[in-house]
């Protein structure tokens, strides 16, 4: 029987978007919310975004929020308006490949700062200090991490802020798009940390991941008013505002958050266990147990430089992923894209039975490589 293709490579979860969001969008369309809206976002959504942070003890204002068509656009707004020729953006790796792709269209350059699986992908303050210099303009943290699933604790963030506060030209950009997807403990936003300076801290967030709304293109940035106003100007000149009926959907998602998020998180927590068990059943696969987001990022080096039953040699994780796709109809995202050769990213945000089947196939495929060596 032919195998059904299974993909663990997507950045989107399989969940349907929250019903209240869909209902609000339809109602908005029926009410005729189809003309240009304010570039910066509707007052109601900007306020609701502030309420989320202020309920956690912050004091942010709607003027500090720009609603964007996806958080990618928030990053692009920022890179375009903030970076001058040669400015450095320090990115701890492994990191989401989108940062590098976006940087191609800006004047800045990515400076990778490697973190290691053997150290639990910790970003060490000393390593950060050695990397920062006068050209460093942004430190870009992804918290929870994609692809590692690593969550920086509050004390880790505060130790990093002690370093960054010695560099007055540096902005700390925290991409928190997976903030609600945390398994073992509370997630702390950069802005809640001691030492986070309001005039130097910028959050990127959106509805694609936590709310399973990737196709809606809904994101936002929250930062100092001066930066936000430059980004409003840039977005106004290029894309303008997010459609008002979509913003109504985002507002409904936020308002119904306590009802809509727990069921998704419960499935993800269960799938995380399934994937952990599946990977543990394969010899010599090492990984970091993700604290958040919905990926494992194992290292498959043990299985490289071996021959497949048909005689091909798999040298890189790209080769390995190609082998899995061609022979087992199983798609993974190669680690090379994330600055981590030898690894691959596996999403567990798919239906549990499919996930179990995928892990079986992976085990079978890798075991054949051992036999053949
Ligand atoms: N940041 C990170 C870390 C991501 O993983 C992604 C999507 N893969 C994005 C930003 C972009 O998300 P969106 O544009 O859909 O909001």
Automatic annotation (TrEMBL):
Keywords, in A-Z order: Aminotransferase, Pyridoxal phosphate, Transferase
GO MF annotation: an example: transaminase activity
Entry-linked Pfam families: Aminotran_1_2
Source species: Pontibacter saemangeumensis
The EC number(s) this enzyme carries: 2.6.1.-
Domain Aminotransferase class I/classII large residue range list: 6-362
Family: Belongs to the class-I pyridoxal-phosphate-dependent aminotransferase family.
Protein's UniProt name: Aminotransferase
InterPro entries to which the protein is assigned, alphabetical: Aminotransferase_I/II_large (IPR004839), AspAT/PAT-like (IPR050596), NHTrfase_class1_PyrdxlP-BS (IPR004838), PyrdxlP-dep_Trfase (IPR015424), PyrdxlP-dep_Trfase_major (IPR015421), PyrdxlP-dep_Trfase_small (IPR015422)
Record's keyword annotation contains Transferase: yes
Signal peptide start and end residues: none
Cofactor list: pyridoxal 5'-phosphate
Lineage: Bacteria, Pseudomonadati, Bacteroidota, Cytophagia, Cytophagales
Superkingdom in the source lineage: Bacteria
């Amino acid at each position: 029987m032919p195998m059904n293709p299974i993909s663990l490579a997507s950045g989107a979860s399989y969940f349907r978007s929250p019903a209240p969001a869909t209902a609000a969008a339809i109602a908005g369309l029926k009410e005729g919310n189809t003309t240009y809206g304010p570039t910066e976002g509707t007052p109601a959504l900007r306020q609701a975004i502030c309420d989320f942070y202020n309920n956690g003890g912050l004091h942010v204002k709607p003027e500090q929020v720009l609603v964007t068509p996806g958080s990618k656009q928030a990053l692009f707004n920022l890179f375009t308006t903030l970076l001058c020729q040669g400015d450095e953006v320090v990115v701890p790796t492994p990191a989401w490949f989108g940062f590098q792709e976006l940087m191609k269209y800006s004047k800045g350059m990515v400076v990778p700062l490697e973190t290691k699986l053997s150290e639990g992908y910790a970003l060490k303050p000393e390593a950060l200090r050695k990397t920062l210099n006068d050209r460093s303009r942004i430190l870009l943290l992804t918290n929870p991490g994609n692809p590692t699933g690593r969550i920086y604790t509050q004390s880790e963030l505060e130790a990093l802020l002690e370093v960054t506060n010695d560099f007055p030209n540096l902005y700390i950009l925290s991409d928190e798009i997976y903030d609600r997807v945390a398994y073992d403990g509370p997630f702390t936003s950069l802005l809640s940390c001691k030492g986070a300076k309001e005039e130097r801290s910028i959050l990127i967030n959106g509805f694609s991941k936590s709310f399973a709304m990737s196709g809606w293109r809904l994101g936002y940035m929250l930062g100092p008013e001066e930066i936000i106003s430059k980004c409003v100007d840039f977005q106004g000149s290029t894309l303008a505002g997010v459609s008002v009926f979509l913003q109504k959907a985002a507002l409904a998602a936020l308002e119904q958050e306590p009802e809509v998020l727990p069921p998704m998180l419960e499935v993800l927590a269960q799938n995380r266990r399934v994937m952990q068990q599946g990977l543990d059943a394969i010899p010599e696969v090492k990984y970091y147990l993700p604290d958040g987001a919905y990926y494992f990022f194992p290292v498959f080096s043990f299985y490289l430089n071996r021959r497949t039953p048909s005689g091909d040699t798999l040298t890189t994780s790209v080769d390995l992923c190609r082998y899995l796709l061609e022979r087992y109809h199983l798609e993974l995202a190669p680690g090379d894209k994330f600055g981590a050769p030898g690894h691959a990213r596996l999403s567990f945000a798919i239906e549990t039975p499919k996930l179990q089947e995928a892990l079986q196939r992976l085990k079978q495929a890798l075991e054949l490589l051992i036999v053949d060596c």
